[in-house]
Amino acid sequence: MLTVLLILIPFIAGLIAFGLKGSGPKVLGMIASLASVATAIGTVCTLQADPKKLSFVTNWIPQLGSQFRVGLDGMGTMLCLLTAIAFLLVFITIYNRDIERPNSFYGLMLLSQAGLVGVFTAFDALQFYVFWELALIPVYFLCSMWGGEKRIPVTFKFFVYTFLGSLLMLVGIIYLYFQTPDHSFSWTSFTSLQLSMGDQKWLFWLFFVAFAIKMPVFPFHTWQPDTYEQSPTPVTMILSGVMVKMGLFGVLRWLVPVLPEGASMWTDVAIVLSVIGIIYASCIAMVQSDLKRLIAYSSIAHIGLMSAAIFAHNEQGTQGVLLQMFNHGINIIGLWIIVEVIQNRLGVKNMDQMGGIARKAPRMAIFLVIISLANIGLPLTNGFIGEFLMFSGLFQYNHWFMAFAGLGIILAAVYTLNMIQKVIFGEGNTLTDTTTDLQPGETVALSLVVIMIFVLGVYPQPMLDLVSKAF
Amino acid sequence: MNALISTALSGVFLMFVGLFVRNKQHIKFFAIAAIIISFIANLALYPTVQLGGYIQFGMIEVSKFSVLFNAVALGATLIYFLLSGSEFEKVGEHVGDYFALIFFILAGVTLASSFSNLLMLFLAIEIMSIPQYVLAGADRKSLKSNEASLKYFLMGSFSTGILLMGIALIYGAAGTFNITELGLGADPVHPLALCGIILMAFALAFKVSAVPFHFWTPDVYDGSPTVFTSFMATVVKAGGFVAFLRMFHVAFAGGAISHHWTLILSIITAATLILGNFSAVFQQSVKRMLAYSSIAQAGFMLFAVIAINQFATQGIILYAAAYSLATIGVFAVLLKLKDYTFEGFNGLTRKQPLLALATTIFLFSLAGIPVTAGFFAKYFVLSAAIQHGHLLWLVIVGVLCAAISVYYYFRVIMAMYFKQGDPEVEPVSGGFKVALVLTIILVLALGLFPNLLIGCL
């Protein structure tokens, strides 16, 4: 039942939030996200003790053979934990902000949380699809209502892209459904299918495009920098911290186990696309002057590495990806919190207008440096161990792929250090002189991030144990 | 059978009500009572057909399918009366007659869902069409309405002629009018029968406004009084589809002959999907956009006609319900606005949040987004096509077009929620709001539990 609770808490809280006024929604949001974190920790403990308790099955549409079937393994638990933590961090950061129409804002945020958890817990393909869309729609409204100047066309592009991908996946799901002997959508029926090579060859693309758009992998990424730039920063945190993991999760949960031969057939293509993404996005990140776009491109590069490592298809690579999904989520949210703070104080995103913030806001500067270093995978931070495993996985598959992907590390160091230099060091100007240091809420959120960075960096074993618990 | 009798009698009754009752509001209540009685009378047959249908007089087949489809058509009309019934009096003087004509159309629709004889098919199509020609021209003072009526009448007459010609050729080939005894599924294909089938396919494609027989649709829908457009585009169109589906599934399925018409209909479907969606993108008025979107939706319903399987039959019923509810709902909101362009919707959420929310949910349903009825409607017709096996290219075309459709449906949503404006909205009564909420609940209920409807089949 804990698993169902994970979906129900944000869903019901989200519906209630629409009807609240004043500071009601943000208090409710905080309570709901604390409850979600507590429940997620509960699922981690239950997974150690009795994993069967985390499964729940009931009839949904018997005529179609579709059931409401939720469950959690190590990967699902980790992602639900990440989701819960991410929303908590976001709500803590924005607690003191004035948001227009807070009831709709918090309502939509919580609904998208319910959708995300639904995706990570679904073991029925139709249910997976429904939640996949459900997570997207609130985000569409969030970006379009609270975003930047060009938000309407940009968010629309994002929506059409992902919707098209989802529809292709739906076609694949229906096709697989007809192949199952018992006509069911359950994950076990799907994974026990003996599909012919000819089928796997094209079915792979129906699923891959849907997941590649979400991650995003080159050349399906064009929606992402614009959307990250135009979205309100709390939503960008969710998009980049959690939502892109939906694509990686989809590959790990549905694509590789259901279409193993299809996946191995197109491995090289998928890895080449991912590696192109890494280098291409890193190069663009180096010449960005817009802070939000820079982080958006750095995110494409990081996700590219994860997607390449998944397709390397060996244990180390997969372990690295699982670990890195959590770590990348935490790190990128940390970065966005700082961007949010800077934007809140200065009102600009252009790095040329910044500088010298370290003197005015030393605490923020320290946090930015730590999180940036974790983001480029410095040893002792959480980013290191995940990247190490991924590179070693990729190395086992093909030296050349690893060599090219490795260029990403060097480029990441270049643009990250450049960003730190431009944003917090150097000479201040009249604008940056007005900066104030972190407020208590922001400090709490960033401290949590930094604690996780160091704990997981020094002692990643518990997380490795968790993610290696498969079904 | 019950539905046919009760709708026909209700039509006659309302003509007399129109003569004797002066208060137009009262006429509406009579109409609502009549539709509820017809709905119940129709459902009363359900227990008797639960184990299997039967044929009456060799002309009409009463089956679970027909009873369920009639229930959908009558239920959608009830929602239509509740939402838009008060708008009838704004069209012209003869409110009673308009209601009567609607009931006559319904008689045609119920006949279309249960004919078992080619003559009954012809009668069904005609009974559905003729009152529509009158309704299209109901606004006598408007030149556009007159033009719509004339255009519709002329084009409709041509297609009826083609249909009759097709029926004659098929009779010539098979020697019977009974659709279960035509025996055209067996090889080899009689050339006369093939010509007949092609003519029938064209005539029915005209009735459901499939490309390239769609040219009348935007002009007629745009010119007709808006309140009647929503009925024409939904219940009547669903009636056309059900006739189409019955004819091809019962009479022309199997053997070499189905290869011939499957190819023709596949091409028509692809053209309908592509043209309908692309044209809808370029419209400036929401009403015309909905006219083109109805062409696009027809493309999806054609999937069900081509794929002969259980999913197709379930799909057409679910599609009829989902599409009718959503379109009637959107039109009901449209009627409350003064300006039918996209800009007319700007900022609607600030002025009338319920109207904006309802429109959003209906448009989600039309676009086929999960937890609305439209998702499962699309799901079933796509499933039918995928199960058929040879139509995967068509499915991919359909999916790409569905992604395009998001563009024009979401333009309305963007206008309502993200743009500034002060739309002129007519006063909205409490009863209207209740009916709107009821429609929203139905759309969501079918979106979460489609087996409420298809479970009965």
From TrEMBL, chain A:
Subcellular location: Endomembrane system; Membrane
Any one of the GO BP annotations: electron transport coupled proton transport
Main location: membrane
GO cellular component terms listed in the entry, alphabetical order: endomembrane system; membrane
NADH:quinone oxidoreductase/Mrp antiporter transmembrane domain mapped to chain residues: 124-407
UniProt keyword Protein biosynthesis, yes or no: no
Membrane topology, as annotated: Multi-pass membrane protein
Gene Ontology MF terms in the entry: NADH dehydrogenase (ubiquinone) activity; NADH dehydrogenase activity; ubiquinone binding
One of the Pfam families matching this protein, by short name: Proton_antipo_M
UniProt KW keywords: Membrane, Transmembrane, Transmembrane helix
Residue ranges crossing the lipid bilayer per the database entry: 74-93, 105-123, 129-146, 158-178, 202-223, 235-256, 268-287, 294-313, 325-343, 364-385, 397-420, 441-459
Family: Belongs to the complex I subunit 4 family.
PANTHER family: NADH-UBIQUINONE OXIDOREDUCTASE CHAIN 4 (PTHR43507:SF1)
Protein name per the record: NADH-quinone oxidoreductase subunit M
Organism of origin: Chitinophaga oryzae
UniProtKB/TrEMBL annotation, chain B:
Subcellular location: Cell membrane; Endomembrane system; Membrane
EC numbers: 7.1.1.-
Pfam assignment, any one: Proton_antipo_M
Keyword Protein transport attributed: no
Keywords, comma-separated and alphabetical: Cell membrane, Membrane, NAD, Quinone, Translocase, Transmembrane, Transmembrane helix, Transport
Annotated transmembrane regions: 6-22, 29-45, 65-83, 95-112, 150-171, 191-215, 227-248, 260-282, 289-310, 316-335, 355-379, 391-410, 431-454
Superkingdom: Bacteria
Similarity comment: Belongs to the complex I subunit 2 family.
NCBIfam families cross-referenced by the UniProt entry: NDH_I_N
Subunit structure: NDH-1 is composed of 14 different subunits. Subunits NuoA, H, J, K, L, M, N constitute the membrane sector of the complex.
Protein name: NADH-quinone oxidoreductase subunit N
Organism expressing this protein natively: Chitinophaga oryzae
Gene (name only): nuoN
